Amino acid sequence: MISTLHSAFLSNTRPHLLCEGNRISSLVMSSLAEIQRAIEKLAPKERSELRNWLDAQDIEESPEFLAAVDEGIRSAESEPKSSLEDIMKRLQERFGWKLN
Between 55 and 8, whose confidence is greater? Predict the structure, then answer.
């Protein structure tokens, strides 16, 4: 029985199973309502992590977005670079930070 549960958990083609005490639950959610109920059970920190993950999924890869990314890459490759010493000097001058 344990090896069956273990292989079901590791396989991508079978539902994932979760063993909690004497209860075995499927980790496959098939409806929005099931997902919503599961989200309601999350701790605040887990909800925050989920929110951040969902926000990251919402990036729309429009032609304008991709063009902006390409321009940022070209700019980073072509513009002069600053040494660490120069950056530290500018931070000290601007903010008074003493960096080692």
Answer: 55
Residue 58: the pLDDT is 74
| C-alpha–C-alpha distance, residues 69 and 62, integer Å | 11
The H or E element that residue 58 is part of is none
pLDDT in tens, 54-80: 888 877 778 888 899 899 899 888 888
Question: Residue ranges per domain, the chain?
Answer: 1-49, 61-100
Contacts of 82 (CB under 8 A, 6+ apart): 90
Q: Which two tokens stand for residue 76?
A: 């980073």
End-to-end CA distance of the chain: 59
